[in-house]
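Hi everyone, sorry if this is the wrong subforum. Our group has a chain we'd like a structural model of before ordering constructs, and none of us has done structure prediction before. Sequence below.
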Amino acid sequence: MLWQDLEHKRVAIWGMGREGLAVKQTLQRHVPNATIVEISEDNLQDIYTADVLIKSPGVSLYRPEIGKAKEQGIAVTSGTNLFMTNRNPKAKVIAITGTKGKSTTSSLLAHTLQAYGFKVCLGGNIGMPLLDFVDEESDYVVAELSSYQCADFVGKPDMAVLLNMYPEHLQWHGSHEQYYADKKHMWNQGLWQLDNRENRIHIKDDYFYDEEKQLFPISSLNLRGIHNAQNACVVLAVLKHLGLDLLKAEEAFKTFKGLAHRLQIVAEQGGITFVDDSISTTPETAICAMESFQEKSITLLVGGFDRGQDYTELNHYIAAHQVQAIALPTTGDRIETSHHVQTIEDAVALAKQITPEGGIVLLSPAAPSYNQYKNFEERGLAFQTAVKST
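Answer:
Right subforum, don't worry. Here is the predicted structure as tokens:
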């Protein structure tokens, strides 16, 4: 939908968070003659007075109000789609999605491309909404896209990357099958597609390899964990597709700093290391986090909002590796442990008592934060505060 398609139209924006505000500000610049209506749960009926409905990612595509709006002939779109339709065509869009690793992969790719001398914008589900870049002149836009943003994606990214898929966000998508289909919806539209499960850039003998050609040691990557090395393989595959010298990526990898709340070491007290991995919202990510510290005694702080995920493998890993788990509401009820607490503050206090010297206290909740915190950042900050104050 082009800007001119919105002229003199009544445009409803459902959800006035970060992306909704970006939509409103962008429309005010580009479509001054549009009438903007802000929609919340308190005035849902106003949707049906609009010509166009722009929904925020948190609003499920499968809510009955969306279906009713479409039946009444109201065009439904999103900020992501407005960006794709109205963006500067000179900038190549590299869209990255996956259940886990997309924030780190997107950030590492943007950092590496900048090290090659390109002008790069990074946004989407991470950092700034894509619409904030709609008027930017850049070489590349690295777009991290959630399943919410992929589900109704319209456009053809120059490069579309799929990292992995595990059951997630069932309350939004309605089923595992629909989640997988929505995730791949964007990927299917890419002009060049990379499924990381078929990536020919791989790891062998602690080195990155391009098929049979040895590149450089994975120790050059300033991130812990084999899963992060696999994310780096995606970055190298994109660089290869762009025709860039892969060996030059080594220096960029060395200078990349990990993102906050992603295996972030926040303190060392009494011989114990405290690690914030609040970004972990699935059992798979919690297992990857623990694998990053296999040589250590681990106390795992786990639990959060319950959206029907399967914790069987996580419980098996905890038992097989003698991890001490401290379980938090609500999914903590499904963790096989004798340690159950109500707050992160209580979990940190207990962890300090039961973790041996030289051990790791790891917040990797394997669940979203919505039952107690606004987002994973707020949860991570609560953990960091508790570590420093208890």
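For your construct planning: The first strand starts at residue 10 and ends at 14. Residues 116 and 248 are 8 Å apart (CA to CA).
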